[in-house]
């Protein structure tokens, strides 16, 4: 079979079959196509219908949705309407409830209970680990309170105050000491001080925020009123206290309700009006508030009734408040005058109990005030130095009268600070007895309305005022000098009249207003002070120069049978640990410890304060006592001063008191202890004790007594007495020379550093250690008041003689002129007025100029007056350095010195006082007078430059007068070609006035401008003579300083008079043994022995203090 044909056959047959099949299928395909086309059309129509249906359905759905939404909104609105209606009811209740709470809720502070719950750390600088406690507070973010700081802050606090933080490894750190610690941002630092009126430097003030929490007068007054009413009317005070407790309880209930409200408000979710519990709480609060308000109304009415009665005791509270601030202000006078409020209130309570009872309240108030005022004065006086007791009494009196409106404040300020304005210039009507200084002060009185007529009328009554001026007690003379005077002279002008008797005037003022007992001496009894003490109350002896209470304490300890239980230690370097050990042992065993000279251990004082603060009254032995001695010191702990019992220790005042103190320590056995030499021993013992008293009391006369106020003590007297007894027993004849040397050069003289003071001391001693004192008729004073007594007298006889002496010393016993009392009184007056100035408020009135404005005006005024520096090159060209003329060198040196001062003034006028302190010549003049004096000095130098060497030199105009004197000697030495060491000055007093001397002397020089103190120049007899009454300083005539070689000082007929730059005379001790205030010594003709003028304290001065 052929395979190819087979395949072709199969294909033909297939094609044939396909032909018949295709012919049958073709109509069917056409029909299918038609049907499909019909179906597609129908489907299209269906789809269009469906689309329209879907649109309709979607429209229906949208409408349905809108319908449903409207229905939902309708239901919500219906629900909200119902809720609103309910909320309106609750809101009405809420508003009504909160309306009563709004006042209390508005005062809530986020700082309520500021640091109480934050773990406040309280530290002190005296704590051993105070820095570690501070570090912990910084590290853990705790608040820290540093107590009892002073005016200077510990340098370790500097990083804290300046916030010296920095980043280290991403953390905030601060460096304290050597440690770097993390700094927590929650850390807070507070500091407190107990200082009454601290003054912090601007450097400190810029680092901290100062807040004044000191006690206010009104606050103290309320506190004191409560105390006095509680004591006087305990029923009223109890009723008031019950009201206070009741009100407090009611307020506490309100507080609890407030807390619940705040809690519900803070924890409530959603609207507060939906909180039913909150609404119910508010409803209860409103009901309770209404109840409390009703009770408060009743309480307020009751309180008003009580306050009416309480108000009657307000004068007691006011008076007591005034006195407290008088006591507090005394710290401005001396740092040891510190008193606590607790101590003050203790005295107040005692006064209320002890004051005399009365039938009516006004009289009872008078009794309480009088008793308390004197009780306080007595207690405070125990701790005041004698010189401040009158000041304190005067302060009490003035403050009380200020409150009463008795004192005119303008007149008070004039009295204390002096006048600064003269309304009119009037000529001095009596220059022969009224100095220009005094007349200017009288003219300033015209600025006071009350005294304006007095100034105009003064010239019409000179005779009467001269009588007052010359009187022994001018302060007690009538201000109206002539009975027939009709001039408008104020009757109380005495306060402004005589400055030198101001202390006596103050005494009379206090006596007239408060009573005589306020100016009488107040003594301190050690037994009474001890009774007021306790184991936690230190007993403090406040020392003055030359005192030591150790002997008195040992004697008291023996009386109390504690002599074997008293341990004493003198504080100083390295004694702190031993003192602490002794104190801790004494507290446990009930002993006394006596720490002497606390002022010598200022670095240990914080440790002592810590020890005293840590005394536990429940654990310390009841017999323990802490005794302390200290000179006045700002480093002494205020806490101990305020909580201790203070006593001042001073030497007796006056020769009588000194003699009495000495002789009370003797007895008959001691007076007779020299056997056959008892008579000379008694005579010389009286001389020596009197000499001791004279030395001590001379100090009160200032520079007239001694240039330097030396600290002579009872120890000096005791050693001299021992040596007197020893030398009398060892020598057959009385060795006066030995006695003078040991007493004058060693025992007393060992303290003397000024040669002129040693000369004075030895001259005084020569009046008491000499054979003449062994005579029973010997007088130590011209009047014979102080005299020798027969040695047959026993101890009682000597004591009786001493008690017969006058209380007030007369200048004659010191060898001084009567004018010395004026100097002494003026010094006391200036000290008292200075103290009163320190007690005045440091505030300025709102209408006047500020202190800065006054200083600025003053500076401009001075700049306008002070000349410009002098050209040194011009002076050196005109006055070159010449061998034969040393004055050229002196002039150039003076110009350089003055230029330096003038340059400082012109450069730093705003800091004038500071600039002058180290660069100006010594002067005691006030600023205005000082500027005038400076202008005159520079004018003197300028005239020298312009016109040549002056014929008469104004020695007061030299910056360094010693150089001028050396130059004068040098000119003579070079002229005569001899050694300057062999040349000294001879002196001649010139009768002509300096204006008449037109030509300089051939050798030496004329000088002018010196003032004499303690004596005057007698122009008629050409010699030194006694001062006139009330004449403290006189002008000296021109002196001719005559250089002479190998000159011998005359042994008689002259007084070797020291010349000083200023009134103080004292200065820095130089290598020559003289004070830097000393210029040179002048020999002045005199018909009296030198000893007379030495004891008078006569000296010459280049410048006065006005």
UniProtKB/TrEMBL annotation:
Pfam families: AAA_9, AAA_lid_11, Dynein_C, Dynein_heavy, MT
Sorted UniProt keywords: ATP-binding, Cell projection, Cilium, Coiled coil, Cytoplasm, Cytoskeleton, Dynein, Microtubule, Motor protein, Nucleotide-binding
GO terms (BP aspect): microtubule-based movement
Keyword ATP-binding in record: yes
Keyword Transport: no
Domain Dynein heavy chain region D6 P-loop: 535-648
Protein family: Belongs to the dynein heavy chain family.
This protein's name: Dynein heavy chain 1, axonemal
Record lineage: Eukaryota, Metazoa, Spiralia, Lophotrochozoa, Mollusca
